[in-house]
Amino acid sequence: MGGPPDGSPSGGAALRVRGLVKRYGPRTAVDGMDLDVTAGGVTALLGPNGAGKTTTVECCLGLRRPDGGSVRVLGREVAGAVPDADHRSAVGAMLQDGGLPTSARPLRLLRHLARLHAAPRDVDALAERLGVPAFAGTSVRRLSGGQRQRLALAAALVGRPRLLFLDEPTAGLDPAARLVVWELVREAVGEGAGVLLTTHDLDEAERLADHVVIVDGGRAIAAGAPGELVAGASASVRFTASPGLDLAPLRQALSEEVAVAEPSPGSYVVSGAVDPQVVAGVTSWCAQRGVMPQALSVGRPSLEEVFLDLTGRRLR
Q: Hey, which of 103, 122, 175, 293 would disulfide with 239, CB 3.0 to 4.6 Å?
């Protein structure tokens, strides 16, 4: 993905990662990662715990030095570079540890951060939307997890960054606050910001991201638009019935191009080259055994099911 040197025009490369490697002693946390974030777009980085997501983000932010590969942020190589004030102010980050000064008061902190930028957001309006005034007089160290989340997001957004790193932005938030966060992210994207989002919420990824990268073992194992990843997966027949049914006769009756499984007790999945004959074979097998299939459905899997199929693990 190309783009102009500063990565600012819509469709340009706000973040470009190629062959990123990071090792901790004998363990390789990131193993040849490729990743792109476009200006005016959201890339969701999905993976189970320990997949290398946080290390990747830290390398992109210059918090850790890569052992190999290239990371370009807004057109500039990160490794060995000393970013100037304009470049630093063009990047916003919301990390899990917050990185906020623990003795600061929320509104004072946001106003201080706003003064460091040429065209900041309206601090009071941003704070109001995230409910910050309700805890404005409390020091950061005494805030609840959800309050810190909202303050950290406000701090990341206040300078109108052109590249935004969001690590689990809605973790611990109630549904109403979650919707506000989504609105703010969409507004930032609408202004041309590129966003790298890490999340354990597949619904969040599907709603916000135009590009998804699934990582496992420090590598990107699948990438594409959410709809593309789902459309490229095998169709399936799903139904529920009594647990522990003997599936061997069903496997013998169906094509070798389909797989039959009981991923959880009483939940059955027939996946692969599903066609009308496969559906008829499933219902015939059930009828012969006096089994009444419940909630029988035919369709593409969800993004979460694609993730589970690729990694063998649930996201959470």
A: 293
